[in-house]
Amino acid sequence: MNVVKNISEDLQGCQDAALLNDWHVVGFSTDVTPGDLVAVTLMERDLVLWRATDGQVHAWDDLCIHRGARLSKGFVRNDTVICPYHGWTYDGCGTCILIPAAPGEKPMKKARAITHHVHERYGFIWVCTGTPARDIPVFPEWDDPAYQKVNCGPYRFRSGYRAVENFMDPSHFPFVHAGVNGIYDNPDPIPPYEVEETADGLFTSEVRVTQPYGDPRQVPVIAYYAYKCFRPLVAYFKKRLIISDPARQHEGNEADRFCTYLTAQIVDEQTSIIRICCATNFDPQPTVEDVRRRQDLVYAQDAAIVDTQRPERIPVDLRQELHHRSDLLGQKYRAWIKGMGITYGVY
Ligand code: FES
Ligand SMILES: [Fe+2]
């Protein structure tokens, strides 16, 4: 009997291969400094994150194989993790190298932490608790020095899928973000747009909307959104901006873009944490505080409504809820995740 495997399986809430073998963001890189043990939860599985002195982040089950104590309550010393209960000491590979009750003995082979795949990219810590089936989706502007990148969040939502769908839905702007991303008294009609399903996700053609405060510069813009849903819990848009400020206090540039890369950490079926990275190439660049202030406002407005949606778990059977032509991306999103065999957190 494999003791390690049985304990870890018992603790798992999700059995969907499509989710288990995918990468999930569980924190910002800045959340984990050397010496800290940071407890996080991914799909009901409790994990501990820690950073070694060489900078490498580790993600393990938050569980000591000896008697099941939480490793996150222990200590990091000399690049080892020491369990708070009986002091079993694990090295960076997860191997137990010391049992203090028997210091002269080599610990048995099975005395190991349960380790997971981990990467840092785009200011986020990504974990895969299964076998990664693909790479982390590319953030197209990340390596382009013309773009300033700002991480924002975390933002708490209930359903991670409903939060992702909301991120890709321009018809809510005039109502949820009146005076910011749309005009309450004059909502934009959503013209027909196209959604293409590719091996890298769902990609839309541009959707045009009017925005009184469409980006951190706080000026009215005409915005053209092109969405990409890379993975069930990773989405992105690139917004082309034309300043429509009648007083022309700001001059725009044809190349102005505001991009957002969004990730949803599913804590459990009805709890999620959204973290984003915004990329802008304006001249002059907005301050980091301006970017965060606007995002904090917009995501608080979203959560206030999205968290009222029922059922909390998103229905993926298109016979549930009503779909309009203007919701094409949402419809395709639901059908796409259903086609992947995802059952966790969906209805
Ligand atoms: S439970 Fe961790 S050392 Fe005993
Ligand atoms: Fe929104």
Can you describe what's shown?
With 347 residues, the chain is an alpha+beta fold. The chain has 2 domains: 3-128, Rieske [2Fe-2S] iron-sulphur domain (Rieske Iron-sulfur Protein); 148-339, Naphthalene 1,2-dioxygenase Alpha Subunit, Chain A, domain 1. It has 6 helices and 18 strands. The protein has helices at 3-10, 17-20, 160-167, 173-176, 288-306, 328-339, and strands at residues 24-28, 38-42, 45-51, 57-61, 75-77, 80-82, 89-90, 96-98, 115-121, 124-128, 148-157, 195-198, 201-204, 207-211, 221-231, 234-243, 257-268, 271-280. Strands 11, 12, 13, 14, 15, 16, 17 and 18 form an 8-stranded antiparallel β-sheet that branches. Strands 1-10-9-4-3-2 form a 6-stranded antiparallel β-sheet, with no helix packed on it. The longest helix has 19 residues, at 288-306. It is elongated. The mean pLDDT is 95.
